[in-house]
Every structure is written in structure tokens, then in C-alpha cells.
Please model this.
Amino acid sequence: MDLYCVMGNPVAHSKSPWIHTRFAALTGQAMDYTRMHIALDGFAQGIQDFRARGGRGCNITMPFKFQAASLEGVRLTPRAQLAGAANVLTFSGPGIEADNTDGIGLVRDITGNAGVTLAGTRLLLVGAGGAGAGVLGPLIEAAPASITVANRTQDKAARLAASHAALAAQHGVRLEASGLQAPGTAFDVVINASASSMDGQAAPVPGSVLREGALAVDLVYGQGAQVFMQWARSHGAQARDGLGMLVEQAAEAFRIWRGVMPPAAQVLAELRAALEAGAA
Ligand code: NAP
Model:
């Protein structure tokens, strides 16, 4: 059995073991996937211990994605380099390959699972932490007309936009930074990549950001996302939680590790059903 895990703090809530175990069963891969709770000051040691046990790779979740991209001896893929954060590590010999699949997972969920085209849209990205950094590059590559990055700490939004300015110019995307109070109005797509829904807080931006029929996506899933989703529906938007992104980013990690693309849409439907039945 090849050994994989998800490392985080907290990590008990993670659905990654459920998802990867299902991917492995559906594609006939012999692998074992567990969750590992890592002390806040123990990330590098946790990686070392897991490798000593024969670990082949791991997913990284909050709050270690930035540390994962700066581990000693790490090689970053271009998308992890641009994000400055990694959520997938692959161990091969003495080396570590670090990738970031959050963005491609989000884009595949929006365009594939939700069937919404991003090209030509006006897009608002709320949040400039690890998740915001991970998704901005792939969102730019999906060629919306414009992206406004809005964050509680406006300086961080400005820094994130500046680090992606060249990519935005290359794809003809107008990229701006803003605070949360007045980021603009009537966006076609609003993505909440802030942690506001983690404890079920109200949407961090005014309802006027949503045009009628807009798509509003919260990267959080489960009970926490409900307030944001109800807010979006009450302003005439189509609401979506982060479960699809979670499954799609996991599918891309599975492909990197095993060379096989698992049936993500099927596993997303199964996971939603299992969660509704209280079985996942
Ligand atoms: P992070 O690096 O800790 O960043 C947190 C971000 O949220 C910062 O931009 C922060 O603003 C902002 N924020 C925190 N509390 C806020 C509030 N009450 N109101 C407005 N903004 C607030 O966390 P992260 O890694 O970016 O993760 C963000 C969220 O995305 C988490 O809830 C995580 O679970 C979710 N996520 C989901 C997936 C998925 O697959 N579905 C993948 C990745 C992340 P400041 O800069 O001002 O502090």
C-alpha cells in the first residue's frame, strides 16, 4: 500500500481521506490515505516523520500552505511559485515537488460542475490569504474581463494583485485591488475566498456586488457556508459552496500522484449524498 495523508491544524473535519479512498477504489489504486494533525510549530518535523514512515505524498491544508512552499529542498511548479503556497507535496527520492491545485480545482468546479463560463465576466475575489493566492492565477487564465481582489487588509489585496500583474496583462485581464466596503457593484461572479464563513459570519461585502443571476461561490462548505449562500440567494444570485472545489483539487492531486484522473463529478455527487445522510 502506498501511503498518503492530509496535514493540517485543525484537520479532524477534513473530507480528503473520504475523497481519496473513494478515488482509489474507483480507479483500482492500492493506496492508504490518512489525516495527520500537526502541531503549529511542527510542520517540517511532521513532513520528516511522514517520509520516514514511507509516505509518498500529502495534501496540505490550513495553516501550512505557505510553509509547504518554502520547505528546504522543495521544487515548486510554476503555479505553486506564482501562488507562493502549496497544497500538494510529492516525495521522490530526497526531493520534494510542491504544487498548488486549489485554483484549477475551483475553475473546474465553476466551469465544469456549475456550467458557468468565466471568459469575459466581471469577477470579484474576496480574500487574499492562502486560498486567494492559490486561485488567482488559474482565474486569470480563465480570461475574465476583469478581476477585483478585495480584502479586509487592503494592502494584502494590493500585494496579491501586484504579484499577478504580468499574468493578467498577458491574458488581457484588468486586475484591481480594493477593501471590502466598496469593491464595485454588479459583478457576474463573486468568490468568497476569505475565512469569514468558517464561523458562519455574514458575507463580508455588500449585496450590491451581486448582479441579478450572478454566481456566488464560497470556498467553505457545510454549515458554515449557509449564511453566505442564503445572502447570495436573497440578492438573486446562484449560490455554490466549496465542496466541488474540494473534490476537484483532490482529483488533480490524485492525478499528479497516481497518473490517473479519477471521476471527480461522480465522487462529488456521492460525497454530497453521504454528507446529507450524515455518513461522511
Ligand atoms: P488564510 O490564509 O488564513 O486567509 C484568511 C483570509 O480571510 C484573509 O484574506 C483574511 O483577511 C480573511 N478573513 C478572515 N476572517 C475574515 C472576516 N471575518 N471577514 C473578512 N475577511 C476575513 O486562510 P485561507 O487558506 O486563505 O483559507 C480561506 C478559506 O478558504 C478557509 O475557510 C478555507 O477553509 C477555505 N478553503 C477551501 C478550499 C476548498 O477546497 N473548498 C480550499 C482552500 C481553502 P486579512 O488578510 O485581513 O486577515
Summary: The CA atoms of residues 110 and 224 lie 20 Å apart.
